[in-house]
Structure formats: C-alpha cells, structure tokens
Amino acid sequence: MSLAAKLxxxxxxxxxLRALLGExxxxxxxxxxxxELAELEPIVARVAELREAxxxxxEAEALLAxxxxxxxxxxxxxxxxxxxxQLEHEIRVALLPRDEADARSAILEIRPAAGGDEAxxxxxxxxxxxxxxxxxxxxxxxxxxxxxxxLGGVKSAIAEITGRNVFARLKYESGVHRVxxxxxxxxxxxxxxxxxxxxxxxxxxxxDVQVNENDLRIDTYRASGAGGQHVNKTDSxxxxxxxxxxxxxxxxxxxxxxxxxxxxxxVLRARLYEQSRAALHATRAADRRAQxxxxxxxxxxRTYNFPQGRVSDHRINLTLYKIDRVMLGDxxxxxxxxxxxxxxARLAAEx
Length: 351
Hints:
alpha+beta, eight-stranded mixed sheet, three-stranded antiparallel sheet, 10 helices
C-alpha cells in the first residue's frame, strides 16, 4: 500500500472515531475509541501539514509559467523543498510499529564489573548521572536498593524511574559502560580502565506477569553494610528466588521487611517481563544476561575518557567532548542519535 493510501485510511479512521465519540458511546468502547484516537491524532495533524505543503508546492509550480510570478514562485519552492520530504519522513517514523513498552516507566540496575573499587565509584557516578537526567525530565526517581561499599562506591544500585516514555528514552543505556581515568587512590598518575553494567527494564504490572507464590523461595536476613541503626538488629532484608527462572532479587534498603519484599517483587516482575519480551522479540537480547554482557573490559557500548574529556558511543560512532555535562545528566544528544539510528534501520528494513 502506498504512503498516500495509508494516510487516507488513517484520516478516515480518525474521522470515524470522532463520530463514534460524538454519538455518546460509553464504557469500555469509549475507552478503546479514545485511546485509539489519541494515538492517531498526532499523525493526522502531520498529514494535514503535509497536504498543505503539497498544495502550496503545486500552486507554486503552476506559477512558474507566469513571467511576472516566476521569481516569487521559485522563492516559495525553495522554502518548500525540504519541508515536504521532512514531513513525509516524520510520518513514516510515526507509522512504524511501536514497542508497547516504550511508554512505560523503568527499573534501572547498575553494578560494577571489572575494576574493583574504581568500578564501584564509577557505578555510583553513573547512578547519579541518571538521577540528574530523570530530574531534568521531571520524572520520579525512587531508589529501591543502594548497597554501598563504604568508600563512596556501590556494589549495586537499583531505582524505579516513573514517568511517560521513560523506557523509550533510557532503553539504549543497557550494556557495559567503560571508564578511563586516574583513580583518586592512584599515586603514580596511571590511567585505569574499569567497567560498569547497566540494565534498563520496562516496569511490569501484575497483569503483565503472573507470579505463582509456590514458585518463590523467600528468605529474610539481617541487613548488612551502611544502612542505619536497623542494620544487624532486625531481619528486614529480603531475598526472593524465582525457582523456574533462577532469578534472584535481594532488597535491604528499607527498615520494613514488608516494604523490601514489595520492592523486590517489583524488580522481579520487571526482569520476568523483560525475559518474556526477549523470547517474543528476536531483535532484543535473548535474556537479561545478554543485555548487560559479562562486564569484561573489551565489551562496551560507551566509553568515558576523563583525561581527554570525551564520551564515545561505539554503536553509532558518536564522540562528544563534554564529559562534565554528560555526567551531570546531559544525555539527550546520545539518546536522540541512538533513536534516529534505530528508526533509520527499521525504515530501511520495511522498504
């Protein structure tokens, strides 16, 4: 089907939905029609812009034959030369099948891999970077678990990031992040290389993942490490093992065993949901371990080189010399480029 035919069908469907809603339908039918119309309206608006630009282009081309209007027509056409292809591209992107998880909130998990204490320090720095990015987007950033090393680093850090299209923006951050810098403890000034694994999982609701209580082994124990007065005094920490998959989630951030269990279940559902998505979508990682890699120094999606002040994303060969701003949460240039790259690949696959 041609693009013009697709756009005619979309416009007609939007008109049909508006008519249905105007008739006063109620209940589930109203909800479904409202949701579908809300998804179509941005595309319909772009279609109207495209058709207006095409109409103006046709009128300007017709005026080229008039000597008195030729200069004006040529100037008009120069202005429209880029707008029509750009609008067509935007519409083609909007018509690409959506990942239904894109609009969801996300679970962020960060762990040091290779590099000892320095990897733990960089893991803490990355966690702060994503927290600042979330703040800039007005997303809610709730720390679910933060197991610190006592030296300013972390053994693991997990957060729930709540907002619209969180997963769509952050899903490209999953993988191995490599840092090259001189550690504060390095007396000889030598550059060390360390790695940190990042996993971004779409948040799952209970309706998405049915967890059978009989499939869970739940252990409680006393929290350890830096955590306040309750540490080592109450069995508040919770470890949940999902027996069929072997997934283990441990939480000790809260003083309440009940709250730790609720947080652990939230992370477990996210991991199980991502695992089911991976099985359904061959383009995604086969499982969560494939997503974050082994943490070996040779694996990486992005390198943060502090001595040279640069950050390089190896998937799209983009290097930015603004490491200070990136660590403050200025990630949009990378994320926009990665989004555009994925869209271009999907458009090419459909041709």
